[in-house]
Amino acid sequence: MFKDVSGVQPREQNLWPSVVVPKEQIDLQIERLIDVPMPENGRRATRIVHPCATAPGYGFAPGIDVTINVLKPGERTFSLRKNSNMVEICLSGTGVTTCNGVQTRASKWDVWNVPSMNVHSYFNDGKEPWVRLSYSNAPLLENLEIHYVEEFEGGIPPSDIGKVKKDEPAEAKVRARDLALREQITPEGAWLLGYEWLIDIDVIESKALHWPWAKVAEKLPSVEDIAKGYNGRRLFVLYNPATERRIGTTHSFFATISSSPPNNHHIPHRHSSAAMNYYLRGHGYSKVGTERMEWKAGDLILSAPGWAMHSHHSGDETTSALTIQDHPLQIAMESLIWQERINEPILNLGSQSGFESNRAQFVTA
């Protein structure tokens, strides 16, 4: 099949509208999940689906899903292994996440990541329902028809049983790729590499990491207390070193925790990465395009569909949010365009030098 596109002009992008999911609706779903019989695999879950989403990629933003998960006391889930990655936050209760055999206890507002193809499961050893919010890139992989998922009991995937695990190469051992061609063929930097370079890539370990709220909260006053007139965002990135220059929490997403003082107003900006805010405390409103959207603690908002001009404004108390964006993925695709302030140019972050905030004005020697 062929389609002639000679002279065709670029189509206008169909931006999903912003949407606020109120705390009250989230709480109703949590109560509903508590009341349903426990499924065989232990997963009581509700995906929060944007009205514009279609099968197979039912997401809250294009390519990104958000799921409410509930485990009652004493319950545990089957193990999962999948090639999507996740950021998770504990909303209430406590529980234990096991990821590649390592156990991590999570309490309210703790954040952690689940790397791709890590065997993981959940156990509620507390006395209250354990509620967590999960963000993943599963809808993107579903649309690409490449989402690999295994669910099973125990710690060993059925597909691995009986298979011999490849030994780690000894330091002195010659790798097959060392014998393959690696040659620069133009002065500008074009190279040729042999096939072995495709199938034996240098490994940067992607670990399951945990950002306890108690430790993050200790640092938040330092960004809240920057003087008025600061034109950057008052937040910290929950940084995973495996993502290197892509500044992510996973290879798909960054997660940030903010702390904005009362009556703090952002300068409008935009970026191709989608942004979702879950408000931990405070209240305020966001301007997305010409629309004003009110929010409060416990609300989830698709706060910036890709490339929508937006700004956030806190009310009369300190405001904190967990923000998730597909920023690292976009840097890897060389598609992260960003306009920090409306009077500044559109830059391709990661491929061009980025923007400067006015932080230097507020730093004393």
How would you characterize this protein structure?
The chain has helices spanning 23-35, 138-143, 196-199, 213-224, 327-332; strands spanning 20-21, 44-48, 65-71, 79-82, 86-92, 95-99, 102-106, 111-114, 120-123, 130-136, 149-152, 182-184, 191-193, 210-211, 235-237, 254-258, 270-271, 275-281, 283-288, 291-296, 300-304, 310-314, 320-325, 337-339, 347-348. The relative contact order is 0.14. The longest helix is centred in the N-terminal third of the chain and has 13 residues, at 23-35. It contains 5 helices and 25 strands. The chain is mainly β. The chain is globular, with a radius of gyration of 22 Å. Strand 24 (337-339) and strand 25 (347-348) form a beta hairpin. Strands 1-21-18-23-16-15 form a 6-stranded antiparallel beta sheet. Strands 2-3-10-5-8-14 form a 6-stranded antiparallel beta sheet. It folds into 2 domains: 20-155, Jelly Rolls; 210-359, Jelly Rolls, CATH 2.60.120.
- How many β-strand runs? 25
Summarize the main sheet. 6 strands, antiparallel
The CATH superfamily of the largest domain turns out to be: Jelly Rolls
What share of the residues does DSSP label as strand, in percent?
A: 25-35%
CATH architecture identity of the largest domain: Sandwich
- The domain count comes to 2
Strand arrangement, largest sheet? 1-21-18-23-16-15
Computed structural class: mainly beta
Order of helices and strands: EHEEEEEEEEEHEEEHEHEEEEEEEEEHEE
Mean pLDDT: 95
Give the CATH level 1 class of the largest domain. Mainly Beta
> How much is the radius of gyration in Å?
22 Å
Stretches where pLDDT falls below 50 for ≥5 residues?
none
The N- and C-terminal alpha carbons lie at a distance of 66 Å
The residue fraction in helices comes out at 10-25%
At CATH level 3, the topology of the largest domain is: Jelly Rolls
- How many helices? 5
* Overall spatial form: globular
